[in-house]
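Fold this complex.
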Amino acid sequence: MAVETAQAGVRASKEQLLGLYRQMLEIRRCEEQLARLHQTGLIPGACHTYVGEEAIATAVCAHLRESDTVMSTHRGHGHALAKGVPPRELIAELLGKVTGCSHGRGGSMHLFKPEVGMLGTSGIVGPSILMAAGAGYTYMLKQSDQVAVAFFGDGATNNGAFHEGLNLATVWDLPVLFVCENNQYATEVAYSSVTKQPSVATKGGSYGINAVALDGNDVLAIYQAAGEAVRRARTGGGPTLLECKTYRTRPHSEGMRDAGYRTQEEVETWRARDPIPRLRAYLLAEGIASEDELAGIDRAVQELIAAAVEFARESPWPDAATATDHVFSEGLRSHDA
Ligand SMILES: Cc1ncc(C[n+]2csc(CCOP(=O)(O)OP(=O)(O)O)c2C)c(N)n1
Ligand SMILES: [Mg+2]
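Structure:
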């Protein structure tokens, strides 16, 4: 069944719409568990959750094939899940277990699973933009129809990588999506205090790239725009910049203070725009899904994440004898010898 949504021109099947709902919920429930595990001391290091921003990764990745690639950020759990990393491998990775997607050696900011096109989260702000431009250049040279996606925050848009990456990809019509998750803060620094051009779409658009500003909490609006951008990239039409205006409703990183740089009222205003209840209300109001159907999805996701936590907690740590494995490339070693 194709459904014409309230968003002009958005066409999606019931299955696709429920898929968006399920994926956002999977990210939310996973993040809630990760926050809890961090609070109990089971996750070492930083843990930046994606709570409030789930619509973006969900809507963009819904259009990607396994062979398409995603380059991510420090806030990348949602990107990994939406690109096909199973929750159990994500949670195990943050717990440092050998069953994690990076075999317990990477943690939150080094999530890799190339088999599904997840080319990594990163603790450095900005390089996802250059990596995606580079991947796009590779796809152009190979004449493949793959697409590369860079996710990044507003904090990366005053970084040189943004300007070099967008310019290069635009000049060469590379098959890339640049997805800016403009949550209006870089740690505790308001975006409005570090730029006189508050529109990322305008800033990036000055390079001649096709640029679109979107409500980042409206999964259907992003789904429509990302669908067009992916089609365009795949068929030689060049890159697109999607500026998704959103908000993180948890602290920058788990355990960090969350006062002094934003007001509780501001947080509450954005909580009221939560993308998940918003899609839920839409599906019910339009008669696309029943309360029972959605409750079934809620239960299934809850069970999936509970089982993933159990799996991660019971998984073994990497064997200490393998501590130096994966440090050097085997190829380089034999070359040196
Ligand atoms: C090149 C670089 N500069 C500074 C930092 C420190 N740092 C870590 S997260 C962060 C804020 C990033 O903000 P943004 O890109 O908007 O992403 P958000 O956390 O809001 O999702 C900064 C400055 C870093 N990791 N890398
Ligand atoms: Mg930000």
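The longest strand covers residues 176-182.
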